[in-house]
Amino acid sequence: MLRVRSVEDLLALPPITLGFEPAESLVVVAVAGRHPGFQVRVDLPRRGRAEHEGPALANQVTAAVLLQGCTRVAVIAYSHRAAAAQVAESTARRCAQAGIGLLDVLRCDGRRYWSLMCADEGCCPSAGIAYDSRSSSLRLEATVQGRAVMPDRAALAATFAAVSGPDRVAARREVQSVEDEVVALLGLRGRGQVRRPTRQVTAAAAPIGAARVAVVLQRTVRAGRVGMTSAESASAVRDAVTPGRAAVLAVWCSFIPVRDVAWSSMTPADAVSHLALWTAVSQRVVPPYEPAVLALAAFAAWLSGDGASAWCALDRCVEVSPNYSMAALVRETLDRCLPPDVWVPLPREDAWAACAIPRHSSAQ
Questions:
Q1: Phi, psi dihedrals of residue 281, rounded to the nearest 5°
Q2: What was the pLDDT predicted at 355?
Q3: N or C: fewer beta carbons within 10 Å in the chain?
């Protein structure tokens, strides 16, 4: 729970919850309604495009806020460009027309902020009001809780970047070891049948893989013990993801029924731990095993309320496998701004049954 007590705290909130300092961004934060604390972030229109693209963006953001049942919001434009105020004001007007109350409408550039609702020069001078969100009480409170704020979105995306250099060589070696295990267990001709499995190979691999993955998940997710803070729990889970365990998860979860067993094991209560786990695996995964790992990471991020990380994981997934359908499902969920509490968990017994009974499906 983070409590906003001032304008400085309000400006500090999105970087904390997004996990990075927003730049050239429009952020709308819900302060009342069905999902207080919900926020949506979109890129501001490029220079010279605000007048043309602003109204459409305002409609998009307002629709997302309405979908969440928000009754009062704060609208913030993080930008060095004065023109960004037009987009913030356009969004505020659209929200007001939809019956949504406004706490404030702000533009800030990292050093100064302007309240666009205030017409009092004595209260809000044209030069803006100096602030430092990094020293706000909210930021200090978040630091104590172990919440990290990265310098920009690119830094957050880098947490899902492909492994490189000597680490990639080591990761490939671990993966080949697991591939050889699959070949031996299933009596296959070689690693190629693991990397490009037929339906028959998938059906044969599913029950064995489900059991192997379940053990690894149990040992890693439970590393985040009761009594730890979220940050401590995530750190413990990441430390528990050894290169060998990462390879086991990456290879076996490439079989769709096995991936679904891993998917069905996620709950809102342990979503943060699953996000830490799949983020760690994504940092060690090598081709052709990225899609399932990244899609699971994206889903865990959404389920834990971390939409920014979900988008970053999806971006890399689309790069390596544009048509991976689990990623498409997560993308649609994010596009529609659906909250995690609408998730109806995939019944674990159904996921396990799919591993025991061959399913003639090529679905991804």
A1: -65, -40
A2: 76
A3: N
